[in-house]
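hi! just following up on the protien thing from before. the input was this:
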Amino acid sequence: MSVVVQNTQGWIVDACSLIDQGYSQCIRFKDTQKSRFKCCFKKQCFHIFKSYCSANASAAVGGRNTDTLQETDKPAKKRKRKHSELNQGEVDSQAFHQKIRSVILEGTKSLVDSAQSLGYLNGVTGTASEPLPPQECSLAALCEMAKELPLVDEEEQEECVQLLVAEDGCRSHVDLFSQVTESRAGWATLVTLMGEEYVIPPCTAFLLSDFTRIQPLVHYGKRFDLIVMDPPWENKSVKRSRRYSSLPSTQLKRLPVPLLASPNCLVVTWVTNRPNHLRFVRDELYPHWGVEVVAEWFWVKVTTSGQFVFPLDSHHKKPYEVLVLGRYRSSADNSMSSSETSEVPVQDRRLIVSVPSALHSQKPSLSEVLKPYVRAEAKCLELFARSLQPGWTSWGNEVLKFQHTSYFTLTPAVDRGDVPKDDATDECTDKPRDSAEFSPPGEFSPPHH
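and the predicted 3d structure came back as:
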């Protein structure tokens, strides 16, 4: 169950289960032969047993977190400073933290208590500890190399869509950098791309490119009802680690969101805890696109025993991140009927609580918690994606990173009831299929009650 608890404060989600949705049926095509598998994301990536005590997130400390949900009223010890006065950024950060502190503390406690009453977040995983898969990724470097290729002429943009696997199950060449790639199968597919093997979820589309080659996504011809983005914000830790290239905030204005968003599109942006980033999104970026801010949510990161991964009042890192939600207001709204423009109001200050991934920059899927706020047949897009989701379109220069088979456990399927039948093409269509296992392209399956 991907959503473990839901109440008026928010949700507790099982991030690993969210990933696994859509991978129970997986086929590898090789030399016109089909091999069937079950794919599960490696559970050890979400084995966060203890709170972190330093900036090095890879070094967990022994013992129990002293900043428990029951005893968080004790402020953390202040670090020694060379200068007695705080800079303006630190003053703003502390003010913002004090403003939302009770929301984070009380909401998380309510959600965690409910989850623990169901036997979740009890510190038990049921699996042995295993090493994490390697996190090296060469996709961004390949995107840089692809810049040497000539741009596709506008007359040829109609050919910017290609099938991942042809009807005969084979594909001799796939241009990942200048064409949107679609997988229309109703099951996951194991494919070899650029010499590496990836697991592609059902009914998905993606473009592997950077900012300079985003035009095929625009020419893809779809308007999206939900756009989620996790920009590579500039900060000191990113510069020190050199894990990925950051992007100046002002460059985000170049994203063609007005060309990709449908009227009333819900736009969701992951924001770091730096106040200037939050102000930029609310006061500059969203107004530039014509997006109206409607809510701020918080992703709260806890251990497998329900404790904050960092002390709530830590001066270095907080156990939460911010999401800014807005609605795209286009001039086309005025010509639409009230029934067409009806939307569910988005509640402010909701919490999404989960055990975070130990893999750098892997965020939990928002598909389940955002269902109530978009229409039933919503087309969904993720920008700056590092993974794919069933039914979604995704773009980024590392869009396939967490689809690499090194992050999955592959088990040969022997039970015919667990795999698609040979005579069932089961391609994604505009109409829901009989099976509720997967959603049609760009659509959410109806919520379960």
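The helical segments are 15-20, 88-117, 139-146, 215-218, 236-241, 257-260, 275-289, 338-341.
The chain has one domain: 3-50+120-414.
cheers
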